[in-house]
Amino acid sequence: MIKTIQQTPNYELGNILDKIGFIIHGTQGKYKGAINWLCTPPNKRNPVSYSSAHYVVSKKGEVTQLAEEKDITWHAGIVRNPTYRARLYLNRTGLIPKPLPINDKNYINPNKNFVGIECEWFTGEILTEEQIQAVTQIIKSSLIKNPIILSHSEVADYKVDFGRDAKGMWNIQEIIRRVNK
Ligand SMILES: [Zn+2]
After folding, report:
1. For residue range 29-40, what is the model confidence (pLDDT) as tens digits?
2. What is the C-alpha to C-alpha distance for residues 54 and 157, in angstroms, rounded to an integer?
3. How far, in Å, is the centroid of ligand 1 from the Cα of 129?
4. Taking the CB of the first residue and of the last residue of the chain, which one, N or C, has fewer CB atoms within 10 A?
C-alpha cells in the first residue's frame, strides 16, 4: 500500500479509545480533486461547508491519509433513517462491543466514533479490486478492535454512497469479508 500523508486543516483533536469503526464513502469525484476539497477549509469554500475524512483511496489503490485515526474528521455528521444493520449498531442492543452514540433516542454526530474512508467513486460504480485491498489493509492495520464497518448510505438515507441496494451493499460486504478472512 502506497500511502501519502497530507494533513487536512479540517479536523478536531480526538481519542482513539472513542473510535468503534469505519464509515466508507464514495467521493463522486476524482482522487486528487477529492483530496484538495477535503483539505480546503470551510471559510475558503463558497458557500461555506464542512467536510473531511481520514483517508482517500484512489481507483488504483493509492492512499492519502488526511488525519490521524484518533482525531475527528467531518464525514458523517448527520444520521438519518439508518438501515436495520446500521441500527443494530446505533441502538444499545448489547450484541456488539460498543454501540453508536445515542442520546435521548436521537442519534448524535458519529464522527467522534468513526474513521472516514473516502474512495474515488462515481454513482453506479463498484469499488476496484485495488480499492478493496487498500481499504482492507487500512482497517486491518488500525488500532480499532473488531471495528464496525458501515457505508455512508446505511447511516444516512439521503446519501448515495454506495446505495442500499444489492450492488451498493456488495462493496461493504466484500470489505467486511476480506477484513474477517
Ligand atoms: Zn459520504
Report:
1. 999 999 999 999
2. 22
3. 20
4. C
